[in-house]
Design goal:
By secondary structure, the protein is an all-alpha fold. The protein has eleven helices and no strands. It has helices at 3-10, 14-23, 41-55, 63-67, 74-105, 113-125, 131-163, 169-181, 188-209, 220-233, 236-249. Helix 5 runs parallel beside helix 6 and helix 7 (131-163) crosses helix 10 (220-233). The radius of gyration is 30 Å and the shape is elongated. The termini are far apart.
Length: 250
């Protein structure tokens, strides 16, 4: 048999056949006088055994031990493979749960699921807020979620869920409009008044979730990343407002 014939009988491509030769799992048969490889029934059997092992999820690099009867015992290898598959199933199950949550909340898939409900609610309600400000809020939240890490994400997610509640969502939208109106020309008195309004409106939420620890402590280098992003996306008045709010909750 030539390569095309044996590949067709085994149900694989010629390219796959050549790959098996390259990695050494399928020895190359001798060549005929015309220079073409000549496969025999034994080569086909070996190829079928490889297909069966691959269907079980056994990596190609482990196959020679099973095919040639050397190295790791089959039961031991199967136990190890079963543990690896169980871990994959658990990971895929969690991934499906996240996808289901994203669908149910109508949130964007590129946003951490813990923050998805907030942005779905905010996006639906804040139709008259500039796309630039909405994008800035999204980007800063994504970066913050990454910087606080998995351990602190439940606390951060709890705060964002509270902001998406019926009680707070209208306040968030209204305040986003006021924030969008801030600029370099905004006076100190106006900024101070707006900070006081912010504390009055959202202070109870900060206290309810975790007081001053609602945003977990992150090191200076990571804070600098947030500052750099805000410098790129916000104007002087908006940055000054955020600095004053942070000082109030410090």
């Amino acid at each position: 048999m030539n390569s095309g014939e044996v590949a067709r009988l085994a149900g694989v491509s010629v390219r796959t056949l050549r790959h098996y030769h390259q990695i050494g799992v399928l020895p190359e048969p001798p060549r005929a006088a015309n220079g073409y490889r000549r496969y025999r029934a034994g080569d086909l059997v070996r190829l079928l055994r490889i297909k069966r092992l691959a269907a079980l999820g056994i990596p190609l690099e482990r196959m020679p031990q099973l095919l040639d009867g050397t190295g790791q015992d089959p039961p031991e290898l199967l136990d190890q493979l079963d543990r690896e598959l169980a871990a994959q199933i658990e990971r895929l199950t969690r991934q499906r749960e996240v996808i289901a949550r994203i669908r149910a909340e109508g949130s964007a898939p590129d946003i951490p699921p813990e923050l998805g409900r907030f942005f779905a609610v905010f996006g639906a309600a804040a139709t008259d807020i500039s796309p630039e400000l909405t994008a800035a809020d999204r980007d800063q939240s994504i970066l913050l979620a990454h910087l606080v890490g998995d351990q602190a994400m439940p606390q951060l997610g709890e705060f964002y869920d509270l902001m998406a509640s019926e009680e707070y969502a209208p306040r968030v939208v209204e305040f986003a409009r006021r924030f969008g109106d801030l600029g370099p020309e905004t006076g100190a008195d106006e900024l101070d008044a707006l900070v006081e309004q912010f504390v009055e409106l959202f202070g109870p939420a900060v206290t309810a979730v975790g007081g001053s620890d609602v945003l977990p402590t992150i090191d200076e280098k990571r804070v600098k990343l947030l500052d750099d992003l805000r410098d790129d996306q916000l104007n002087d008045g908006q940055r000054t407002f955020l600095a004053r709010v942070q000082a109030r909750f410090a």
